[in-house]
Design goal:
- This protein is mainly alpha-helical.
- It folds into 2 domains: about 35 residues, no CATH class; about 40 residues.
- The chain has 3 helices and no strands.
- α2 packs across α3.
- The longest helix is centred in the last third of the chain and has 15 residues.
- The radius of gyration is 23 Å and the shape is elongated.
């Protein structure tokens, strides 16, 4: 096993960021003992899109979303997510 380097003390996050941009994490941590983790509570990054839908379809989506007490755009995301999981 190789000798690991000691991580320096940083005065702020910016200095630490510059350090890690120039150094390999493998020189400072034993990555063979690293474990995968999930940050399930993090909000996903979103991107706005423009999507043209027939007016009657939008109205139907709004009615169904209202029945579920969710915003219609959230309802559309729920439908898309479900469709992607079953595709």
């Amino acid at each position: 096993m190789k000798e690991l380097k000691t991580i320096p003390t940083f005065k702020d996050e910016a200095e630490e960021s510059v350090f890690w941009d120039k150094h390999d994490v493998n020189d400072y941590f034993d990555m063979s003992s690293a474990k995968k983790v999930r940050f399930s509570n993090l909000k996903k990054t979103t991107k706005s899109i423009s999507l043209r839908l027939p007016v009657d379809m939008i109205e139907e989506l709004k009615v169904k979303a209202n029945a579920m007490d969710v915003p219609y755009q959230s309802y559309i995301k729920m439908i898309l997510n479900s469709a992607l999981k079953t595709a």
